[in-house]
Design a protein that fits this description.
The structure is a single chain. The model has no long low-confidence stretch (mean pLDDT about 95). This protein has one domain: Hypothetical protein af1432, CATH 1.10.3210. It is mainly alpha-helical.
Length: about 325
């Protein structure tokens, strides 16, 4: 079968530290193997075809519901992460299909309005003794929510990479997962600078010269080669100390001047109130919670709110809480 030929090539070509499709830890529910695609190829395809992936096109990356056509959304961010991660995986002879599957799925559980929405939902849930983390919500999306509550039944390696894609998470168990974590950081640093310049939140001469002199104007041309050079034939993914320090310094600058910038984030001050009102309405709405056991109602509300796109949340808020103008009925 074609799948077996691909698996054979993986064994011959890939690094001894790569995850081989034929040796995947498998899925929560056993399935008949596809004759044409490996396990990780099937995972990638399932992610691309799911509803949560399509909704990413209307979820905030940095700028809420941007009017311009060229700002990143959560979807375009995801595609850029995937492209960078695949480049790294190919150069290091790791499993591209596993890398791509993790990258495409890593933000499926992100809230509307980006990290402002995530923080707002986290604050709401404190009052219920619960927590919210978008990486764990992404896992829930692929394990439970998608496919009408049956989940996508992805392999364990993909689930692990999704769960551990943030810098503060435990190290992913696969090198492919570790690459996605780095690619995520590479991508958002690069494109958030571009978007901030486009939005005139920053000017090029404001970028920190100390770090830009190390990383260069096109930072991917420094970050990607550094990652490749430092990880050929290695069991762990790491950066050279000098480049890593510059990358982290640039992130600190972006956090202060863009991610928490009043001009860029002025609309985010409205997000907590909007999500609080939506959450309260749906959580205590008997129709919304109909046939949902009381023990599962909080989870039901969280899943619904987290799954909203920016524009859906805004439209629902307007429908529920903003009076519509009166129009005289037309004569029959």
């Amino acid at each position: 079968m074609i799948r077996e030929e691909i698996e054979k090539r993986e064994k011959e070509i890939l690094s001894p530290f790569a995850c081989l499709s034929a040796k995947s830890r498998g899925r929560a529910r056993a399935e008949t193997e596809c004759p044409y695609r490996t396990a990780y190829q099937r995972d990638r395809d399932r992610v691309i075809h799911c509803k949560s992936f399509r909704r990413l096109k209307h979820k905030t990356q940095v700028f809420i519901s941007p009017a311009g056509d060229h700002y990143r959304t959560r979807l375009t961010h995801t595609l850029e992460v995937s492209q960078i991660a695949r480049t790294l995986a190919r150069a290091l002879r790791l499993n591209e299909d596993l890398t791509e599957a993790i990258a495409l799925a890593h933000d499926l559980g992100h809230t509307p309005f980006g990290h402002a929405g995530e923080e707002a939902l986290r604050e709401i849930l404190k009052g219920y003794g619960a927590e919210f983390h978008h990486n764990l919500q992404s896992v829930r999306v692929v394990e439970v929510i998608e496919k009408d509550g049956k989940g996508l039944n992805l392999t364990g390696e993909v689930i692990d990479g999704i769960a551990a894609h943030r810098p503060q998470d435990p190290t992913p168990q696969t090198l492919e997962g570790q690459l996605v974590r780095l690619a995520d950081r590479f991508a958002y640093l690069r494109h958030d600078i571009e978007d901030a310049l486009l939005a005139r939140v920053l000017t090029a001469d404001q970028l920190p010269k100390e770090h830009m002199s190390v990383l260069g104007e096109k930072i991917l041309d420094t970050l990607v080669p550094d990652c490749i050079k430092n990880n050929l034939g290695q069991k762990a993914v790491k950066m050279s100390p000098r480049i890593e320090a510059a990358m982290n310094g640039l992130y600190d600058f972006m956090y202060e001047h863009v991610y928490t910038n009043y001009q860029a984030k002025s609309e985010e001050t409205k997000v907590p109130y909007l999500l609080q009102q939506l959450f309260r309405h749906y959580h205590y709405d008997p129709k919304f919670q109909k046939n949902i056991p009381e023990s599962e109602q909080l989870r039901h509300t969280v899943d619904f709110i987290a799954g909203m796109t920016d524009r859906f949340a805004i439209n629902m808020f307007e429908d529920l809480f903003v009076p519509s103008e009166w129009r005289t009925p037309e004569k029959e």
